[in-house]
Design brief:
This protein is of the alpha+beta class. It is built from 16 helices and ten strands. It binds protoporphyrin IX containing FE.
């Protein structure tokens, strides 16, 4: 990786915290991968795979589903199939994947997302604004966990009592926490435990599916033509992909705003597109899904032909797309800078597996951001009162981020 231009002081402070978040989660793997990336855009690392840290090469791999797949040895299917079953989007390719995705698309239209999250997000937004404008201190990790828990309850048809919301979130967190980048599959004990935990959530989803009540997600899946089995699998996939990512991102977005002063710029701005640019830039810097994995289906070349720019791969190899490093190579946090085309939205993937839940993620992020900006307008700048980095987790995050206004 080439040296980055020096960032202005508040930005350097923000980036230093982001660095601590990464090192807290992966004290060995993260610095190691940075050293790997410094050797070139595509580097073979024994025991890990062929590591890609260049956005354009990453995009080529993600779009080439004939050579690089999410099924087969070394792919994410090794991790998730024993837990979720064989056909849950994350571990499918080709026509079957396209068909299932097409049927699930109806769950993520703006209307469907508003129905799913609208009331819960409005309540959280009001609570956040009231507490901050009243001079209170709010732990955004706790708040984001509650938002995620209540979305899981809506997904599975669980009632949204405080207990259910907390348990649903803890369950999802436990399963995601079992995954390690250096292990290609879960241990048999982990699989049993993950199935038990997920079973609790899916049980409720099955009841909701059988009832066919279209105000629940499983009921709506039935109306969209999914079988009971597919609906259970999809609920599991949503819980696994859509929980930790958001609980990681929302507090980190707030920290970036407070650390750089962008909270005040946003609050003073009348540009309707600025908030979207700021969120995208924060997603680029944080890349909540820090890596994407692919198995090699047929012999191929990853990256360029010149020495040091690519690698030959064959079936049995694993390609590790270091999304975070691909995105970070475009510089420090700066919403004023246009992101290079290859990087744009890479944090949500590319090609047929592009994040299906992006509209849902955006709704949750926007609800919290709007409440923060409204509080800044009323009471003054966002301030991080205290923060603690999460240690030894899969998705880098804060363990707590306590904020106040002025
Ligand atoms: C900031 C939050 C999020 C980020 C950064 C994110 C990122 C990603 C990425 C990078 C992928 C592609 C993985 C790959 O190609 O290997 C993906 C796929 C996926 N995401 Fe998200 N995601 C987020 C939130 C969500 C939410 C809230 C949901 C809720 C349903 C969700 C559901 C999915 C699903 C179902 C897939 C698999 C799609 C497929 O394989 O066709 N994501 N996400």
């Amino acid at each position: 990786m080439s040296a980055l231009p020096e960032a202005p002081a508040p930005t350097a402070h923000a980036m230093a915290w982001e660095e601590r978040v990464q090192r807290g989660a992966h004290p060995v793997v993260y610095p190691f991968l940075r050293r790997v990336a410094a050797r070139g855009p595509v580097v073979r690392v024994p025991g890990i795979g062929v590591v890609v840290s260049d956005a354009a090469v990453a995009r080529e791999v993600l779009l080439d589903t004939e050579r690089f797949t999410k099924t087969g040895p070394g792919s994410p299917a090794d991790l998730w199939t024993p837990v979720l079953g064989p056909a849950v989007l994350l571990n499918m390719e080709g026509a079957d994947h396209g068909r299932l995705r097409g049927r699930l698309a109806g769950l993520f239209t703006p209307r469907a997302v508003a129905d799913l999250t609208g009331p819960a997000l409005a309540a959280v937004g009001t609570e956040l604004t009231e507490r901050l404008t009243g001079g209170g201190v709010v732990d955004l990790v706790e708040l984001a966990g509650r938002v995620a828990g209540s979305v899981i309850c809506r997904m599975t048809g669980l009632p949204e009592t405080d207990d259910d919301v907390r348990t649903a979130f803890r369950d999802a967190q436990e399963i995601v926490g079992m995954v390690r980048l250096h292990r290609r599959s879960l241990t048999p004990r982990q699989v049993r435990r993950a199935r038990d935990v997920l079973g609790r959530l899916s049980e409720r989803a099955t009841v909701a599916y059988r009832d066919g009540d279209e105000s629940t997600v499983p009921g709506r899946m039935r109306a969209l033509g999914l079988s009971e089995h597919e609906a259970r699998g999809a609920v599991g996939a949503f819980v696994l992909t859509g929980t930790e990512t958001l609980v990681s991102f929302v507090p980190r977005l707030a920290a970036l705003l407070a650390d750089t002063g962008w909270d005040v710029r946003l609050a003073a701005s009348t540009d309707p597109e600025l908030a979207g640019r700021v969120v995208n830039e924060a997603l680029r810097i944080t890349a909540p899904t820090p890596a994407m994995l692919r198995a090699v289906a047929v012999p191929a070349r990853v990256g360029g032909d010149a020495p040091g720019t690519g690698a030959d791969v064959r079936p049995g190899d694993r390609v590790v797309i270091a999304t975070l490093l691909c995105c970070r190579a475009a510089g420090a946090f700066d919403p004023d800078v246009r992101q290079p085309a290859a990087v744009r939205q890479l944090w949500f993937g590319a090609g047929p597996h592009f994040c299906l839940g992006m509209p849902l993620a955006t709704a949750q992020i926007t609800a919290v951001l709007d409440a923060l900006v409204a509080s800044v307008r009323t009471r003054g700048p966002l301030r991080v009162v205290a923060r603690e980095v999460a240690r030894g987790v899969l998705i880098p995050a804060y363990a707590s981020l306590r904020v106040a206004c002025a």
